[in-house]
Model the fold of this input.
Amino acid sequence: MIVREEVLRKALDAALSTGADFADIFLEDTYSSSLGLLNGKPHQAIVGQLYGAGIRLFFGHEIVYVTTNDLAEEGLIRAAVKAAQSRLGKQRILSAPLLQVVSFDSIHEYGEKPWQMDRERKFNWLRSLDQYARAKQSQVTQVQPTLIEKFQKIQVANSNGLLISDERAYVRMGIEVIAENQGVKESSHDNFGRMGTAECLDQVDLKKLAEENADRAVLLITAKYAPAGAMPVVIDNAFGGVIFHEACGHGLETTSVAKKASIFTDKLGQKIANDCVTAIDDGTIQNEWGSLQIDDEGRATQKTILIENGILKSFLVDEMGSRQTGYQVTGSGRRQSYKHAPASRMRNTYIAAGKDSFEEMIRDVDYGLYAKKMGGGSVSPGTGEFNFAATEAYIIRGGRIEEAVKGATLIGTGIDALGKIIKVSSDLKIATGMCGSVSGSIPVTVGQPQILVSSILVGGRA
Amino acid sequence: MNVDSIKKIFHEISKKAKSENAQVELLIDSGESLSLSAQKAQIEKFDQKTFRTAGFRVLYSGQQGYASTEKLSDEALTLTFAEALQNAKDLSSTEKRSQEVDWSFPSGQSETKIINELDFGEQGTLAEKMQLVLDLEKISQALDSRISIVPYSVFSEGSFLRTILNSQGMERSYQERHFMSYSAPLAKDGTQSKMLGEMRVSRRFKDLKANEIAQCSVNKATSLLGATKLESGNYPVLIDRNVAQDFFELLKPAFSAKRIFEKKSFLTGKLDQRIAADFLSICDDPLDLRGGGVRPFDSEGTASQKVLLIENGILKRFLTNTEFAAKMNLPLTAHASRSPTSEMQVAGTTFVFSSGKESFESLLQKYPRIIHVVDLSAFHSGFNGTTGDFSLPGQGFLFENGVKIKPVDQFVMSGNIFELLQKIVGLSNRQGPSGRGVICSDVLVSTLSFA
Done:
């Protein structure tokens, strides 16, 4: 427990003093560590501690949010009073109730905490990545492997009487490979993340991770630039799921829906995609990077069916989103840290496996693009315009995968893109990412099987 | 915990560091911020943050270890220093390293005049700030019937105190304050929607005027209604000054000596070579009060200085900190950059482009067809920092012989930023808004690919 129940109750009571109809306090004590190599040698060792609280009040549909690093009784109450005083002149309508501690059995399993594991073991994983990459391709000039760990303790108390705590461990291994040939440089990067502790990295195929990125960096040196224009695109599985994340995912968060700043606002129950599309956002996958046990509002997380056979079934709903829209909470309230008020956000978001075959999709395309490796993307939920980068792609010509190309950003609008997904394979994979939005940067996964989009604008070179 | 108590405990920590043949630096950032937003004629969000973070950097046998904490008690600071020291020791003990150049944290004696305070101006009342965001929404909706909603009517302000102490006698601090307002209305016409925001940044609250910000953002959004898809091809392009400021931020990391050292910059090997048009000069100026990167000293405490990076198209300098100036035998430019929780980087502050002499209108007449780009996005995913290649979605207007023909959208502007510098053929005489990391005007480029 970060702060005692009695202190939290006093702080909640102070927060409610000017008429708020709901209050919660989110406390956090988080350890983080980042290690890295450069030129094959240990080069980076950083540790840090985040320690603070965020106090949130609701006055109807208005949100007040105040943070503090001072978690002593006096400091918390001072912050609560500051929050309450943003709305002077209103009468108290609630007092803080007795807090009931809620316990649960976590579905996630953890091993040694980050500060317990021998550091040399961690550097050895990173050395392996470096050595495999350099051994695979002589044109590799730089390899930067990194290992980031986080152990987060949280505590949530609210004016409904809830008092709940959780511990979350995260580990993420990354690699960036730079290759050069005759003055031309290219790079490739990738990462693997888990909601878990570092011993899970013993199960990761480090050789494959390193060699794939070395090969990709070298391939890109001689790859031509992607062509420009609208064309059919086969998007690979795993991180290919960024198309759904950008095209639709953000538009399904009540952060946008409640303001009517989403193209999906009035489309619940309507057909927004072809029958082959079922999309899910799931916080309950054991030890998956984007998973939770409880969300950052203290609610149990859930598996949410967003789209089923093309029909929009649900939004992603947090406490304020529920208040504003009337939809049920989906355990999707998330934040980067206590420094951010929570908002409805994605977790592990994927298009469910379909029935089509990847080989058939390629054969179906006379001239188009196979987007094998995706970079990140972004979206304007209000207009539905989205984009994402294809960092490794191939021309499909006459139903065959041919020469490699690079440097293309694919753009479109959400509903239009959804309606053009015409085939979904059975080979679902999920990949690690970070998503930045109103409540900060949070761990998410994106995923899908391979999909065929009948037409999408490829922004290559004219 | 106040600054005097922190200095007292740091004195003890310094002694411990010296007894271990190490150097130690403590960076403390503290401050407050307020953010307001309005929705449906009410204050939707009131967000007030107080923060304080202390970060140690320890130099031991040529290796740097870092540790940070948000607990500023004596015990927490002492423990955090021990973690940073251990981190440095772990890095230095794992491998035998070849002879590296000796370097040291800067001392506090050698610098000249330091700017300790900036002109904050009057700060405005809470009621005035709330009224600003309410007015942004109200005025936007009143200006044009095609404005359906205003998803973002935002005000924010921040105050920030940075203190740097090190075991070589450095003891320095400065304060900074800024105000920002942003409006992004959603314009709808039939089935087409457009949303383009207007942001203003200033050190004075009174510079933020709701009617100006609202008018600009409404004009931006409504002017793009009716946009049609641009035909793919290569076009001359005039990058609007508002967009150019964001676009040329992409250049900054390439000038970092650290990235050169790590073989990650596309400017490697190009010192004293022509890399831009011969009328273009770019400097980095942390003391230009128009810019968003103003600071009197860098993150090691070295006094800030203006640095000429490109002079008449020739690359003259890379940016350095103490470590990389020593390792690469380059002049020290005082561009150490870090937060208490991060490792030391080398980063630019405010890039200032030379001014042009021609009007915006005359630049638009330079070619029979020009794309005036007013919006670009996907900077984080559509740019390759290693090669300089970019592929960015955008919106704008097609001009023919200086006359605006139509708005265009659904295009991706692609090229290489290094090559683009050499294809710049004109700069206008109207500079972009202040408070950003790049100060430049409209930029005319002879040709870029549009898909």
Residues 110-117 of chain B have pLDDT under 50 and may be disordered. The first helix of chain B runs from residue 3 to 19. The longest strand of chain B covers residues 147-166. Chain B is about 20% helix and 40% strand.
